[in-house]
Amino acid sequence: MASRKKRSRSKQRTPAPPSGSSGSRQRPEPDGSLKQARISGRWLLSALAWTLLAAVVCAWGVLCLLFWQGSWQLLYHPLAVVARTPASVGMAYDAVGFASTEAGTPRLAGWWIPAANGAASARFTVLFLHGQEGNLGNTVDALSRLHRAGVNVLAFDYRGYGQSQFVRPSEAHWREDAEWALQYLTETRHIDPGTIILAGAGLGANLALELAAAHPDLAGVIVEFPLTSPMDLVWDDARARLVPARLLVRDRYDLNAPAGGLRIPLLWFAWDARAGVRAQPTGPEAYERVAARKMLIWLEAGADADRQVADALTRWLGDLPAH
User: Is residue 262 situated within a structural domain?
Assistant: First the structure.
C-alpha cells in the first residue's frame, strides 16, 4: 500500500527544467517545432546608424591627427642640403654650433661672419633670422649686404633646417631657437646686448619683431618683408575646413601685438609692387602701431633693391646709438 502511494506521488512531480534554461519557454508550433525569436527591423536600423556614426567619428579623428602632424608643411619648407656658403661671395666665416644637448651635441648650426675690419672694431652685431624657405644657403646675398654695412653677423638654421637638429618647425621652436642664439652671443661670445641688432626676412621678420618686443635691452631691429597673414597658408587649405584647424595649430605669428610693444629702434623694409611710386601715405598696420623710433623704406618694383637696402642700412646704422 505504501509503495503504491510513493509511486503515485512520483508520477505527480513536475520534471525540473533542463540545465541552463532561464525558466522562459518557447511554445511549440502545431507541427511540433519551436518558435524562433525575431529581431526588430527598427533595432537593426538603429545599430547600423550607430555603427556608421562611430566609423565617421573615427575617420574624422584620424583626419584631425594627420592634419595636426602634417600641417606644418603648409607653412614651413625646409631644406637639408646647404648649397651655398659665405665663401661663395668671398666672405670669411666660421661654422659654429651651439645650444648643445645634455650629450654635448649642438642643436643649432650657423655661421659667424666677422666684420670686414675685424669683429672687435664693429659697433654692432646682427643676429639674422631667415624665413620659412630653404636654409642658410638661401641667405648668402642678404648676409653679404649686412657684411658690407660693417657689422658682425651671426646667422643660423632653425631646428629642422640645414645641418641643425631635426625637429618639426613651429613658432614655439623658432622662438626657442632665437633665444638660444641670443644667449650664445651674450654668454659665449660675451657681446653686450646693447650692441646686438635683430634682423629678419619673411617669416623670420615676424619672429624678429616678436623677439625684439621681448628684449628692450637690444640695440634695434630690422625687418624685411614680414608676412601680414602667414597663417592664411594653413587656414585656407581645403583640409583645414574639415577639422578644427585653429585648435590643432598653435602658430600665429601676429605682427600687431609685438609692434605695439616695441621699445627699440626699427628699420622696416616693405615692397611696393607699383613701379614708379616713391612713397606711400601710410605704412603697414603693424608699422603704424610702433611707438619707438622707426624708419620705413618702400622698395620700388624694377629698381635696384640692393642699392636701396644698402643706402638705408648705412643711414639707419649711422644714426643708431649703441647702449
Answer: yes
The pair phi, psi for residue 135, each rounded to 5°, is -170, -165
Number of domains in the chain: 1
Residue pair 286/256 in contact (Cβ under 8 Å)? The answer is yes
- How far apart CA 111 and CA 106 sit, in angstroms, is 13
What predicted TM-score, i.e. pTM, was given to this entire model? Answer: 0.83
Q: Is the dihedral of CA 49, 54, 55, 61 positive or negative?
A: positive
How far from each other are the two terminal CA atoms of the chain, in whole angstroms? Answer: 128
List, for residues 68-86, the tens digit of each pLDDT value: 999 999 999 999 999 999 9
In tens, the pLDDT along 14-70 reads 555 555 444 445 555 555 555 556 778 888 888 888 988 898 889 889 899 998 999
Phi, psi of 94 (to 5 degrees): -120, 135
Residue 39 lies in a domain: no
The whole domain housing 278 covers 74-318
Q: CA 111, CA 183: separation in Å to the nearest integer?
A: 15
For residue 206, tell me if it sits in a domain: yes
> What is the distance between the alpha carbons of residues 93 and 74, in angstroms, rounded to a whole number?
33
- Residue 78 falls in which region: left (phi positive, over 0), alpha (psi -120 to 50) or beta: beta
